[in-house]
Amino acid sequence: MLFAGPPGVGKTATAHAFARDLFGDSYIEDGHFMEINASDERGIQTIREKVKMFARQIPMGGYGFKILFLDESDQLTDDAQHAFRRVMEQFSTTCRFILAANYSNRIIEPIQSRCAVFRFKPLTKNHVIEFLKRIADNESLEIEDQALEVIYDFSEGDMRKAINILQASASIAKKIDEKVVYQVMGYVSRGEVRKILELALSGKFTDARDEVRRILYVQGVMPSDLVSAIYRELFYLDLSEEDKLDLLDLLGEVDYRLSEEATPEVQLMAFLARLAAKAKKK
């Protein structure tokens, strides 16, 4: 089987759950299941030694086969993948193989054609929030619904990342709100971004500049993160679609210039100046 999908959506957990259901709770200790992380051992030598040695051994306990789980299999070199394909052919009677990959297109076609492919997608908001609430209850944390929404937005369906954000937030405060999550992530909140844009739209250009300086130099937010936050908030402004298209084009130019080491404050103020000019024209 080939488990393909983004990180943190349960590929490894599914493989372990499958083996536990098949072989019982002691599936690892009894030698029925072996896990290898290909991002650590990605060369052909690992395939020739570790994988081949495990695959060729006859399963014990009356089971027809063992399971070898190759995590991060898209990190294997091409030579190692071709060697693995040969091992799959030789020892299919004694061993079955589960491969997990973030990018299935990096797995060579001969391996893919020998696998049943299961595609994992990012976890839904309901599932992520439900699990985070369960953790919060067990850890006696008080977390607001808006904070859960923000954590999900940052995690993008990656449960592992969502749990890490929650844990980092809990290290700051037992009562977790939206502000704590933004502080942990080092990002600027939607409210602060909206304030900057509204100041520019209302003609208070100097106040908008002061807010940008506070976020960049006092809070220490990365300029590229501020650009990303502006991008997310831009769609909600009271402007025509044509004006939004023009501003998005300009924001992309600002992002490119920042990547080329341009002065962040100058680039961001140039964008706000264009925004203020559009508001004045309107």
Percentage of residues in helical conformation: 55-70%
Measured distance between first and last alpha carbons: 58 Å
Q: Structural class of the secondary elements?
A: alpha/beta
The CATH class of the largest domain is: Alpha Beta
Q: Secondary-structure element order, as H and E?
A: EHEHEHEHEHEHHEHHHHHH
Strand content: 5-15%
What is the count of β-strands?
7
Largest sheet: 5 strands, parallel
Q: What kind of assembly state do the chains in view correspond to?
A: single chain
Number of contiguous helices: 13
Low-confidence stretches: none
Shape: elongated
Average residue-wise pLDDT: 88
Q: What's the number of structural domains?
A: 3
Spatial ordering of strands, largest sheet: 2-3-4-1-5
Radius of gyration: 25 Å
List the helices and strands and how they pair.
Blueprint: E1 2-4, H1 11-23, E2 33-37, H2 44-56, E3 66-71, H3 78-90, E4 95-101, H4 109-112, E5 117-119, H5 125-138, E6 142-143, H6 145-155, H7 159-170, E7 175-176, H8 178-185, H9 190-201, H10 205-218, H11 223-234, H12 241-259, H13 264-281
Parallel strand pairs: 1-4, 1-5, 2-3, 3-4, 6-7
Structural summary, described in words:
By secondary structure, the chain is of the alpha/beta class. The protein has 3 domains: 2-119, 3-Layer(aba) Sandwich (Rossmann fold), CATH 3.40.50.300; 125-185, Orthogonal Bundle (Helicase, Ruva Protein, domain 3); 190-281, Zinc Finger, Delta Prime, domain 3 (Up-down Bundle), CATH 1.20.272. The protein is 58% helix and 10% strand. It contains 13 helices and 7 strands. It has a 5-stranded parallel β-sheet. A two-stranded parallel sheet has the order 6-7. Helix 7 packs across helix 8 (178-185). The chain is elongated, with a radius of gyration of 25 Å. The mean pLDDT is 88.
